[in-house]
């Protein structure tokens, strides 16, 4: 249940996207493009101070977008160990990164050495992951999810695909609720102390039931679409115009990106 | 007859070819009529509305709409399909089925957009409907974030955005609180909607007297057992009781126990 609630909160919460703030006011298409530029910059730079500066910029944008810093840090730092811990920790040791010994520990007669190069490499990796994840999280919490899907059209993804994704997102909530209610119904009748074998049977029943329900829902939704004139071809109303402030934002980020790219390529950074 | 919209002659329908849902339905519906189809759960009301909307077709018998027989073949003709969809709108019983777009606004404009209505007209209709139904503040919300009553209002707006001549309503008040029911009923009695042909399927007898002129009673055997004027049908308690539309109800007032048929007929006239 906890995992389901976390999933619902992460995927469907639009709380911050509905607030007024710097990033919320920028056109989602422009915002996504600029965040892609930020991500490329994060991936290209090998200088830890530049990465830290980009992370600081991300935190500043968070502040300007009226996002609670505690919420933002909690949301991003949940993912960091997941992405970096298993790669960064082994890189500390001389076995994987040979170099100048920084710290040496003997465990059971085996000498374990942490190298300076290993520590710097691991640190660079963790900061890079942290900054990249922070930018992605910032984009997702300041943009309504359906707008993010709509951005796919900028990249020439076929409209039918975008529409299908939108419908998936819409009905995912319904399915999650269905699972939640079924789980509650089971809990109210049999409690939580079920033998694992019986538990497996219940899970199998639920999967079958969910499939059946979603299959029926699929048919009904298609009928509802037909009823309102759908013939297999998706039509969309003209998207909103990009404003001057959006172009200004794009110009600033693009300039920053070009400068960083130049410094990286020329070896000055 | 020029004003004849639907003509059903001995229509049968069964799900998967073995579960009967409609058994020998014969009805004629004229333009501007307000019709209520009442019957207990599973009596075939929703199946009939789906058929009137050209979503399913009879296993036996003939259904004609606007003077033309409707069948699967007919809907392959793009011109007829578009003509029919512009004329008929169905509000589904389950609003979650009907609201499939990521936002309320997209859901409301889906119909007219796909039926080739020009953008300017679509925006006019959108603004008019959201004002009338009081749902302007919901336009950018996702349907899953709405309450049951709000979803129902959006579903009604999404059908009316097509501006159909015939409005089919499948249990429009099911699961709603009394105030929302009142709002929706008042809306259907407004001039912009009142001139339309309205066919409403329900087993809720609270409001049908004020919204319908003619009532068809469906039996558990999935056929029509009676057609008549609203008042005449609603006062035939034996007929309603036999078809599971009212029940004998016992309740206590101090020391006395009353037993009488329970049907909530005149609540809307109470002062």
List its salient traits.
heterodimer; A: 269 residues; mainly alpha; 5% strand; B: 271 residues; alpha/beta; six-stranded mixed β-sheet; 35% helix; 28% strand
Structural description of this entry:
The complex is a heterodimer of chains A (269) and B (271). With 269 residues, chain A is mainly α. In chain A, 70% of the residues lie in helices and 5% in strands. Chain A contains nine helices and two strands; from the N terminus they run ααααββααααα. In chain A, a hairpin with a 2-residue loop joins strand 1 and strand 2. The radius of gyration of chain A is 24 Å and the shape is flat. Chain A starts with a helix and ends with a helix. The mean pLDDT of chain A is 84. Chain B is α/β, with parallel strands linked by helices and 271 residues long. Helix content of chain B is 35%, strand content 28%. Chain B is built from twelve helices and twelve strands. Chain B has helices at 45-52, 72-75, 78-87, 95-98, 104-114, 119-133, 148-160, 178-188, 191-194, 208-211, 230-234, 237-242, and strands at residues 4-15, 19-30, 34-38, 60-65, 68-69, 88-91, 166-170, 197-202, 214-218, 224-229, 247-253, 256-262. In chain B, strands 6-7-8-3-9-10 form a six-stranded mixed β-sheet, with helices on both faces. In chain B, a hairpin with a 3-residue loop joins strand 1 and strand 2. Chain A binds chain B through residues 12, 14, 144-146, 149, 166-167, 169-171, 173-174, 217, 220-221, 223-231, 233, 235-238, and chain B through 50, 53, 55, 78, 81-82, 85-86, 89-90, 92, 94, 96-103, 106, 109-111, 113-115, 119, 122, 140, 142-145, 158-159, 162.
Write the layout of secondary structure elements.
The complex is a heterodimer of chains A (269) and B (271).
Chain A: H1 2-12, H2 28-44, H3 48-64, H4 69-91, E1 101-107, E2 110-115, H5 116-142, H6 145-151, H7 159-190, H8 196-227, H9 244-265
Helix pairs in contact in A: 2-5, 2-9, 3-5, 4-5
Chain B: E1 4-15, E2 19-30, E3 34-38, H1 45-52, E4 60-65, E5 68-69, H2 72-75, H3 78-87, E6 88-91, H4 95-98, H5 104-114, H6 119-133, H7 148-160, E7 166-170, H8 178-188, H9 191-194, E8 197-202, H10 208-211, E9 214-218, E10 224-229, H11 230-234, H12 237-242, E11 247-253, E12 256-262
Parallel strand pairs in B: 3-8, 3-9, 6-7, 7-8
Antiparallel strand pairs in B: 1-2, 1-4, 4-5, 9-10, 11-12
Helix pairs in contact in B: 5-6, 5-7, 6-7
């Amino acid at each position: 249940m906890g995992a389901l609630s976390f999933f619902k909160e992460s995927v469907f919460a639009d709380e911050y996207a509905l607030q007024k703030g710097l990033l919320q006011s920028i056109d989602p298409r422009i915002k996504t493009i600029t965040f892609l530029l930020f991500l490329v910059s994060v991936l290209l730079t090998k200088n830890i101070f530049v990465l830290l500066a980009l992370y600081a910029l991300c935190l500043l944008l968070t502040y300007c977008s009226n996002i609670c810093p505690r919420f933002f840090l909690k949301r991003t730092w949940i993912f960091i160990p997941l992405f970096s811990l298993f790669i960064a920790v082994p890189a500390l040791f001389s076995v994987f990164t040979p170099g100048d010994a920084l710290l040496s520990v003997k465990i059971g007669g085996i000498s374990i050495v942490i190298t300076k190069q290993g520590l710097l490499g691991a640190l660079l990796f963790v900061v890079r992951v942290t900054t990249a994840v922070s930018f992605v999280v910032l984009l997702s919490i300041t943009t309504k999810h359906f707008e993010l899907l709509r951005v796919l059209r900028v990249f020439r993804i076929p409209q039918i695909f975008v529409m299908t994704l939108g419908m998936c997102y819409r009905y995912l909530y319904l399915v999650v609720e269905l699972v939640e209610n079924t789980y509650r119904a089971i809990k109210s009748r049999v409690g939580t102390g079920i033998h694992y074998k019986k538990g497996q049977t219940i899970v199998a029943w639920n999967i079958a039931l969910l499939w059946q329900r979603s299959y029926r829902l699929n048919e009904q939704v298609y009928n509802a679409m037909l009823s309102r004139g759908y013939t297999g071809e998706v039509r969309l109303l003209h998207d909103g115009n990009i404003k001057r402030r959006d172009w200004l934002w794009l110009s600033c980020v693009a300039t920053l990106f070009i400068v960083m790219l130049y410094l990286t390529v020329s070896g000055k950074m | 007859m020029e004003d004849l919209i639907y003509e059903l002659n001995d229509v049968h329908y069964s799900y998967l070819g073995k579960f009967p849902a409609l058994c020998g339905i014969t009805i004629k519906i004229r333009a501007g009529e307000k019709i209520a189809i009442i019957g207990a759960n599973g009596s075939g009301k929703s199946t009939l509305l789906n058929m009137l909307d050209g979503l399913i077709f009879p296993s036996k018998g003939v259904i004609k709409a606007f003077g033309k027989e409707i069948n699967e073949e007919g809907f392959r003709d793009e011109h007829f399909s578009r003509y029919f969809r512009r004329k008929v709108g169905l509000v589904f019983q389950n609003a979650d089925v009907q609201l499939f777009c990521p936002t309320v606004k997209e859901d409301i404009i889906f119909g007219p957009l796909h039926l080739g209505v020009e953008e300017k007209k679509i925006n006019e209709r959108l603004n008019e409907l959201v004002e009338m139904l009081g749902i302007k503040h919901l336009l950018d919300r996702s349907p899953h974030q709405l309450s049951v009553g709000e979803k129902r209002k959006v579903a009604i707006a999404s059908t009316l955005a097509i501006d159909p001549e015939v409005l089919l309503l499948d249990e429009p008040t099911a699961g709603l609180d009394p105030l929302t029911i009142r709002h929706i009923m008042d809306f259907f009695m407004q001039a912009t909607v009142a001139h339309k042909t309205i066919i409403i399927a329900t087993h809720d007898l609270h409001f049908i007297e004020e919204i319908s002129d003619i009532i068809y009673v469906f039996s558990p055997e999935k056929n029509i057992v009676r057609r008549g004027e609203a008042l005449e049908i609603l006062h035939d308690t034996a007929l309603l009781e036999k078809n599971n539309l009212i029940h004998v109800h016992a309740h206590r007032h101090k020391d006395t126990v009353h037993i009488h048929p329970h049907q909530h007929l005149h609540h809307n006239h109470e002062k």
